[in-house]
Specification:
This protein is of the alpha/beta class. Helices cover 30% and strands 22% of the residues. A hairpin with a 2-residue loop joins strand 8 (71-72) and strand 9. Helix 3 packs parallel to helix 4 (169-182) and helix 4 (169-182) packs across helix 7.
Length: 467
Amino acid sequence: MSSTRTLIRGGLVITAADEIHADVLIEDGRIVALAAHESDVAEGWTGRTIDATGKYVIPGGVDAHTHMEMPFGGTFAADTFGTGTRAAAWGGTTTIVDFAIQAPGQALRAGLDAWYAKADGNCAIDYAFHMIMADVNESSLKEMDLLVQEGITSFKLFMAYPGVFYSDDGQILRAMQRAAHNGGLIMMHAENGIAIDVLVEQALAAGHTDPRYHGEVRKVLLEAEATHRAIQLARVAEAPLYVVHVSAEEAVAELAAARDKGLPVFGETCPQYLFLSTDNLAEPDFEGSKYVCSTPLRPKEHQAALWRGLRTNDLQVVSTDHCPFCFVGQKEMGRGDFSKIPNGLPGVENRMDLLHQAVVEGKLTRRRWIEIACASPARMFGLYPRKGTIAPGADADVVIYDPHTEQTVSAETHHMDVDYSAYEGKRITGQVETVLSRGELVIDKRQFTGRAGRGQYTPRSLCQYLT
């Protein structure tokens, strides 16, 4: 058994609230104290000492939107809970919140138990679950109350994917009313799927089969319309709302307008919308299929509105929506029909680095980087202050981050179990050096020292922006 005491010396501790030169003292998996450099708090300290001089000491990332082993369109996401959580650790993320899926006609409990079984004994870092509701009826509405008591406090609904996950406005309203009653948070995939399906059919009939048409049929206005409709339904139900993977300027405007009214409406975006665009979807030789996800990538001009939303807090969280499919054998299922390309991108390993690059480029402050990647997702989903900060009493999920090392993102060096990188060749300044999960080293100076099964399931309290 490794020492249960660790001292991290000499670093710049960055949280959402502060930047302080401090030493971090860890005992039995928890942070017990922060002390000024050269103070006598650590005098006579016995245990492991990590030198973080010249480095950042930051909370482990909280990725509140991943899909490990997710079934989609006749295949499964390429990362298991084993490979996906290991890759997350390499990227400085120490907690994921994945989505358990209710199959139509099945109880919520059956879906949740299936995901418990997939993850149990396989995760390198801590994990929690949201619940995808595919069937909103009297029985599943009652089950929501039981799940909230069990620490599954958020429920995802889809305005997209008719015949798979789609809920109509009546079902959405009922689920929102239930959430208003039991304290749960409704997460919404906001795209008008009924209208999109018409445009898909028309595009294919016209011979428009290439990946770029995936972006063209999933129109900005249909994301904005669905976002607006979700907000109004939430107002009627007097329920809070969290809109996932916001990609378009017009959708951000809907969120901003709601928040200006003081409504409990929240928004998430993802690195792919901040760094990639329809230019990627249009890459020749079917390469564009690598970038097919929903909501889709948008024209570059939408990126400015997303960055602005992150600075003004109209968007609170950056998650990855990590749902990787290999190019060979999986993305290729959609050759000749873009609607058959599995939707999703790999990214769980890249999020912290990409957002640090935004700090380097002056788009975000260092504290805002930690806020949108660690603290806000932890607060949003009832994990704070155990996760998302460096403070006495918090879990010792700590990353030593070298802000000066340069790296080039590549599938050849990443640890996600997928045969391409969405950011291939991108130069980044900054790199994760060492990662502790509850005080245990899982990455030690760029060596993986963790193991499958040491990650723990973590029940969640209610959204802390509402309590």
